Every structure is written in structure tokens, then in C-alpha cells.
Amino acid sequence: MTKPTSQATPGDGMPLVAKVFAHLTDGEFHSGEELAETLGVSRGAVWKAVESLRDLGATLHAVRNRGYRLRSGSDALDASRIMNLLSPVRSHVRSVDVAWAVDSTNSVLLARPNPPSGECEVMLAEYQTAGRGRRGRTWLAPPGGSICLSLSWTFREVPKDLGALGLVIGVCALRALRDARLDQVQIKWPNDLVVESRKLGGILIELRAESDGPACVVIGIGLNVALGARALEAIGETGASPIDLVTAGMTDISRNVVAAALISQVNLGLLVFEKEGLKPFADEWRDADALRGCQIDVHTQAGIAQGLARGIDLHGALVVETPKGVRRFISGDVTVRAVG
Fold it and tell me: How many Cβ atoms from other residues are within 10 Å of residue 69's Cβ?
């Protein structure tokens, strides 16, 4: 049986900055006086909360005699609404939790006991104090500007293609975004979602397995929704070339709808993957391959390999045609070489 969902709401002990954020997510202007009266605090306290939101990277408008509003107009994450949108897979979703701030959504689920086989637990947060990408990189996600989602799942036994799970989740995310009418998304091996060669999202999978026992995976998905110019610039300074859903053309966005689509497609994908492995997803992955036919550099612990990207093999390894022959990579970072 599905357990009740939980959600942090503006009146249940959340910090003032979270309460102000919750009132601004409708995209309308709210005066400092109105917010102060509604929340039972001083206008000075509201001003400090607004400045804290800016410090966290949220994009805010402030207009004299009108007040404040979040530029993105992004809806606040709502556990109950997300759960209600999960009708195809609801029996497999044990719980959906939404928090204002956590260190990382993956870490929260890794600290919990494994869910029963065939069920998942979901954790979302408006803000992460220590969001993580692959290889320990920081994942920057301002409040209201992204989806930070993790899902834990226990396999009855370790699937034979477990190393290819990241590719499967990439296909699941691709399906969810296409359900939301974003058709130009591609997948960059091993775990990036890209639009026009710019990074839209990423996937981080962490495994907790016991010898001769079940394997629990925690699947983290970070998706840029409406970052704003400041956050896009900050991410660009890390060496990435980011894009968000708004910039990609999705101007009418509900983060709750997108989050529910991600959860649904990942659940459906995991049920198939557990029985059949990578094979049912391979053709769809190849059709969305952002590296196909590109001259690339593959950065590994052993050095840099250069060659022509030739897709993936039956186990999810990247196939590269190099001057010394065809090579396969099960891990590494890839950059596309400039032409000319």
C-alpha cells in the first residue's frame, strides 16, 4: 500500500525564506507589506528573506509600489499534486517527499532503509546545499529554477546490465520531456541531457548492494527549468554550457507535471529493465545519441583517447573508432572536438 506523502508547507516550521518563496511562486507581484502581514513578521524580515533568495540564486523582480515576484513564475513543488499525477505507476510509488532544503536528495535516500522490491521512494527539494553531479562535481540549482529529484529502487537481484542503467534512465527522462512537448532533447553519453549541445540535465546513480542479496539504486535527476541569466552565467563559469527548459522554448511549464512525468517514466523503465536489461532501450538511445559521428576526446584515468563516436554496444559501453582501432569505454568524460 502506498504510504501518505509528505510535503513542507509555508506554515509548518519552515524558515522564513522558504515561506516567502512559497508565496512568490505564483509569478504575481506581492508587496513587502502584504507578505509581512500574511506571514506575521516585519517588513525588514521580509526584505532579508528576499535578499537570501537572491543569494541562493533565485531570479527576482522588485518594482516600487508593486513589490516582489519570481521572474520564472515557477510553481512550488507539491508532493500531493505530484502523487495525484502518477496514476499509471502510483502503486509502485511508496512515498513522495518535498523539502525546502537538503544537502542532496540522493544523500537523503541513501540514509534510508531500502524500499521493498518493486516500489520506490521519491525525494525532491527546492534547494540543495551540496548538490552533486558525477565525479563529485557540484550541481548548481537555485530555488524555483530547477528540478532536483531522487528515486530509490530495490532490485530483487542485480540485473545483468546494471552498468547500463544510466543510459536507460536517460531514455526514460527523454520520454518524459517529450511527453511535456520538448522534442529536441538528445542524450550525451554517459548521462547528460542536452539541447543544441548545451546541458539541460544530468543523471547520478549510486548503488548500495549486498553480496548475494538485493541491490538498491538511488537515481538522481537534475533538470534545469528556469535558471535565469545569473545562474546560467555561474554554471557557465564551471566549464559547462547550460540551457534550461524556458530557453529551449517551454514557456508554460509546471515543475510538478514534469517531475511526475519523470517519476512515471523511470518507474515504467525500471520494471522493464529489471526483466529485459538494456536491449528494449538501445534503439531509442541510439536515435537520440548527441555524439554520433562526432570527433571526440574521451577523458579517463588512463589518459585521453581521440576518435570518432560510433554509438554504444549491447552493454552500454561507448564505442570509439580511434587511429589504433575500435575501443570501448564503460566510464569517462567526453568532449566534442572543434572542427577546423
Answer: 20
Q: Which of 192, 203, 283 is nearest to 243 (CA)?
A: 192
Query: pLDDT digits over 122-177, tens only?
Result: 999 998 887 555 555 556 678 888 999 999 999 987 888 899 999 999 999 999 99
In the annotation, is 199 catalytic?
Answer: yes
For CA atoms 168, 187, 180, 4, give the dihedral sign: positive
At 89, give phi and psi (nearest 5°): -125, 10
CA distance 288 to 186: 5
- In sequence order, the β-bridge partners of residue 63 are 67
Q: Are strands 215-224 and 295-300 parallel, antiparallel or unpaired?
A: unpaired
Collapsing DSSP to helix, strand or coil, 271 comes out as: helix
Q: Can you tell me whether residue 19 is helix, strand or coil?
A: helix
Question: Is residue 328 annotated as a catalytic residue, yes or no?
Answer: no
Cell of 340: 577546423
Q: Single out the catalytic residue among 112, 156, 160, 337.
A: 337
Adjacent-strand bridge partners of 222: 148, 202
Prediction pTM value: 0.89
Which residues make Cβ contacts (< 8 Å) with residue 158, sequence separation at least 6?
209, 215
Which distant-in-sequence residues (6+ apart) come within 8 Å of 326 by Cβ?
310, 319, 320
Verify whether residue 337 is a known catalytic residue.
yes
Predicted confidence (pLDDT) per residue in 3-23, tens digit: 545 444 444 567 899 999 989
- Please tell me which residue in 54, 71, 134, 292 is annotated as part of the active site: 134
Q: What is the pLDDT of residues 163-218, one digit of tens each?
A: 999 999 999 999 999 988 888 999 999 999 999 989 999 999 999 876 666 789 99
